[in-house]
């Protein structure tokens, strides 16, 4: 099959337009160069970079009547007089997935976080160094506890009235998102 010069030029122009138009390279002086990284580093993820979402962007959590009932039953099994639930998730797509009891500890598992609550202190399984303090409200300060051996993720630990609370995740997260969720905790009645 023979192609005319005009057909070859037309296919070439279309190829340049498609490839050039679909590339991510911008001529804008303020754009990020293709060689720089916009993905947060592990340190940024672990310490809460400048890139978490604002509290307004976090998911407002809602609970079904059945979920509330399951939480209250599980809290009773764990020996909790008062159980707390967050009204804000730890990310834009957070929701409650599972309610568990492990001995005297209630565990609420969400898409982006897990929350353990107990009437007894929830201590790390080994001695860990001092963590930084997180002011959650006027009367409650939390503490970021460094990761235990075998884990790369810190956890947030605090006490609400007579309930000890531990926020954690198996995935990297933004500390400010967990703190926003912790600040939103209210008693479930």
UniProtKB/TrEMBL annotation:
It comes from the Bacteria. This is DUF4367 domain-containing protein. The lineage of its organism: Bacteria, Bacillati, Bacillota, Bacilli, Bacillales.
């Amino acid at each position: 099959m023979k192609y005319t010069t005009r057909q070859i030029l037309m296919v070439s122009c279309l190829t340049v337009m498609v490839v050039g138009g679909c590339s991510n390279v911008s001529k804008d002086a303020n754009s990020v160069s293709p060689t720089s990284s916009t993905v947060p580093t592990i340190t940024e993820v672990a310490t809460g970079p400048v890139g978490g979402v604002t509290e307004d962007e976090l998911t407002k959590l809602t609970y079904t009547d059945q979920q509330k009932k399951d939480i209250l039953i599980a809290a009773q099994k764990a020996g909790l007089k008062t159980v707390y639930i967050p009204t804000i998730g730890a990310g834009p797509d957070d929701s409650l997935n599972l309610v568990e009891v492990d001995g005297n500890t209630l565990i609420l598992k969400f898409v982006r976080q897990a929350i353990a609550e107990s009437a007894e202190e929830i201590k790390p399984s080994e001695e860990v160094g001092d963590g930084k303090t997180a002011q959650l409200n006027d009367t409650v300060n939390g503490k970021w506890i460094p990761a235990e051996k075998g884990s790369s993720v810190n956890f947030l630990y605090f006490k609400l009235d007579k309930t000890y609370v531990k926020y954690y995740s198996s995935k990297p997260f933004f500390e400010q998102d967990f703190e926003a969720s912790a600040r939103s905790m209210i008693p479930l009645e």
